[in-house]
Amino acid sequence: MKPAYNHVCLTVGDIDRSVAFYKRYFGLKPVRRDPVHAGPRVSDMTGVAGGELKAVFLSDGDFVLELIQFLGESAVSASACPTNQVGAVHLGFVCDDVRAAHSAWSAEGVRFVCDPIYSAKRDRWSIMLRDPDGIMIEMLEHAALTDEQMATARS
Fold it and tell me: What's the pLDDT tens digit per position in 102-129?
């Protein structure tokens, strides 16, 4: 049996703030908001003793992003881990104009790691930014893989 992709999950500090961010900047719509999860099952599944959390699933119809926020004593307040730390993640999104997004979103207070970077090898602009919890997000003007590379993956 071959598992198939279902969703990506990020732990955030303020779920409502993160829902607003991903909806505003990436068009992800909240499609499922779970009641608070608590008890032994949560502790077993997360490895967090006394774990209590709320969860929201966002989607654009293709990509599914689950956001979870730990509550009460199970919550730990910290920023995202450094990019070079094992376990660090980043999300990748494609947009039409990285430089225009950088200009507009910078004016709205979105935190960018750098100015847009041009890759002559791939003939595209890209940029890295951080969500409200410091989680890295990459934006590219073309998909990370070519159609041929995707076809190879499907074969």
Answer: 999 999 999 999 999 999 988 899 999 9
Q: Of how many residues is the chain composed?
A: 155
* CB contact set of 58 (below 8 Å; sequence gap of 6+): 19, 22, 23, 28, 29, 30, 31, 64, 65, 66, 67
- Angle formed at CA 42 by CA 131 and CA 60, multiple of 5 degrees: 40
| Judgement on whether residues 101 and 132 belong to the same structural domain of the protein | yes
Are 57 and 98 in the same domain?
no
Residue range of the domain that includes 55 = 1-78
Whether residue 65 sits in one domain with residue 84? no
Query: 117: which 2 tokens?
Result: 């970077």
| pLDDT < 50 stretches in the chain | none
